[in-house]
Specification:
- The chain contains 14 helices and 17 strands.
- The protein is of the alpha+beta class and 496 residues long.
- It folds into three domains: 129 residues, Beta-Lactamase (2-Layer Sandwich), CATH 3.30.450; 78 residues; 253 residues, Alpha-Beta Plaits (2-Layer Sandwich), CATH 3.30.70.
- α12 packs antiparallel against α13 and α13 runs antiparallel to α14.
- The relative contact order is 0.06.
């Protein structure tokens, strides 16, 4: 309502306009989003004090608030009460024709806007709507994008994981192969990798292993290992080392070769060398070379090897046993029968690289090498299998049984050496063999003291023993033609 005055200021009357509450209530039914099946917008009128003017439903009562009738606030929804509590929207302090606020109610975010009604006292139009009405689509799109991104990232992650795992397996194969090569395990391994670069590295390693396997068939693996670890190339030169040397030879091979086809002999020798080489390598020795049907091996070179003389004795016995097993096995296939003679000696010899600068051989040289070879040859004279020098016997006496065969000045040496026969490991030699050995040594002592009649009697009592037969023949000769007065019992060997 409003008072009317004339020009002089005299009150003429009061003009009052009334609106039906039902007309005001129609504001709440105004649709903002015509496309929505259910419009979430709530439109209402409020005064400058944030009091609601429009009812939400026709039965909502009015209350007197300081002379003004207003819909009862107790029946208002919580989001509408919070919207009306945004005093800055309704008080008019903010002079903008449209003001907006954002708040949360019952876990949901709402937007409320207030619009001024020009010339309508302090009444204002309010529009309340849940924020997700506008952002729900965006959120759904965002969720879809996030889900799609997550799926894509998961796919990439799985593909990357599979690729990394494949690369890792390939690299693990490279590392494992390199580690095996460092340990001198050159056995071939499968090349498996989905990546060309890794495959090429593995193939290169396999080629390197092939070359090293081939090299190991020509030179001692221990020497290659030593050169590899020291990171140096072989050069001409040698060092003086205490080494045990072994020479072997097959008895009567020339006669065997005359009655066996060459290819059959080659196959038989291949199996024989395989058995002998395994016996040497199992004891820590290295095969220096094959000389026809002979094997030269040495211990304590190129690496230090404790107890090498005893190990060489064990290798000789193992080689003999391996040969016997081979001769009795079906692998012989009716081929030639081999019997091996062994010569073992321990001495300080020159060990190293000999030859020309571009063609080097790793071997041992010296008087000790020659003596080991001569001892193998003496086995043929005495009918024995394994003869050893005094140094080997002294070093291995605690583990093996020996007998003194004779003092011999081998070809090329002026002084005699005590030659012993290796009978076997202690505890494995029969009592009969040991008794024969002791009886032989007693007969040998009589022989060396020139008591040839006594020695002949003793040797003759050991008629089944090959060395005894050899010494008995000597006794008979010396009975008829005694040796010189300076003879000290040393036998001078004129052959190799």
């Amino acid at each position: 309502m409003n008072a009317l005055e004339d020009r002089s200021g005299r009150v003429l009357g009061v003009v009052r306009v009334g609106l039906l509450a039902s007309r005001l209530d129609d504001v709440a039914r105004v649709r903002v989003d015509e496309a929505a099946a259910v419009d979430p917008h709530r439109v209402f009128l409020a005064d400058g004090k944030g009091r609601l003017l429009t009812r939400l439903r026709p039965d909502q009562p009015f209350v007197d608030e300081g002379g003004d009738l207003r819909p009862a606030p107790s029946m208002l929804p919580v989001e509408l009460r919070l919207a009306l509590a945004q005093t800055a929207l309704w008080s008019g302090e903010d002079e903008r024709p449209r003001r907006t606020a954002r708040f949360e109610a019952d876990g949901r975010v709402y937007l409320v806007s207030a619009f001024d009604l020009e010339g309508a006292q302090d009444w204002r139009v309010g529009v309340l709507v849940p924020e997700d009405h506008y952002t729900g689509g965006l959120r759904r799109t965002r969720r879809s994008l996030l889900l799609a991104s997550a799926v894509i990232l998961a796919g990439f992650a799985l593909a990357g994981f599979a690729a990394l795992r494949s690369v890792r397996r390939g690299l693990d194969g490279v590392v494992a192969s390199a580690a095996r090569m460092r340990d001198f395990d050159f056995a071939p391994a499968p090349v498996r990798s989905r990546f060309r670069d890794v495959t090429e590295v593995l193939e290169d390693l396999e080629q390197a292993k092939t070359a090293l396997r081939a090299m190991g068939k020509y030179v001692p693996v221990g020497l290659v290992r030593q050169l590899y670890r020291s990171r140096r190339e072989p050069v001409l030169g040698s060092e003086l080392r205490d080494a045990t040397l072994l020479f072997t030879d097959i008895e009567e091979l020339t006669t065997i070769a005359e009655r066996v086809a060459p290819d059959a002999l080659a196959r038989a020798l291949g199996r024989y060398f395989e058995a002998m080489t395994a016996a040497v390598q199992a004891s820590g020795g290295i095969v220096d070379k094959y000389i026809g049907d002979a094997v030269m091996a040495l211990w304590n070179a190129p690496d230090d090897l404790r107890g090498h003389a005893a190990l060489a004795c064990g290798a000789a016995l193992a080689g003999r046993e391996a040969t016997e097993r081979l001769m009795a096995s079906p692998e012989r296939e009716g081929g030639p029968r081999f019997r091996t003679r062994f010569g073992l000696h321990r001495d300080h010899v020159m060990v190293g690289h000999f030859g020309a600068p571009d063609r080097i051989s790793y071997t041992a040289l010296g008087d000790g090498v020659n003596l080991a070879s001569r001892l193998e040859g003496l086995s043929r004279v005495y009918g024995t299998e394994i003869l050893v020098g005094e140094a080997v016997r002294d070093a291995a006496f605690d583990a093996f049984a020996f007998r003194l065969v004779e003092v011999v000045a081998v070809k090329g040496r002026a002084h005699g050496v005590r030659v012993h026969e290796l009978l076997g490991a202690k505890g494995t030699v029969s009592a009969a063999t040991l008794d024969t050995a002791r009886a032989y040594e007693q007969a040998l002592e009589a022989y060396q003291r020139r008591r040839f009649d006594e020695a002949l009697e003793r040797f003759s009592a050991l008629a089944g023993d090959p060395p005894s037969r050899v010494l008995a023949t000597r006794c008979r000769i010396f009975r008829q033609n005694p040796p010189e007065a300076a003879w000290d019992g040393t036998h001078v060997a004129h052959g190799k």
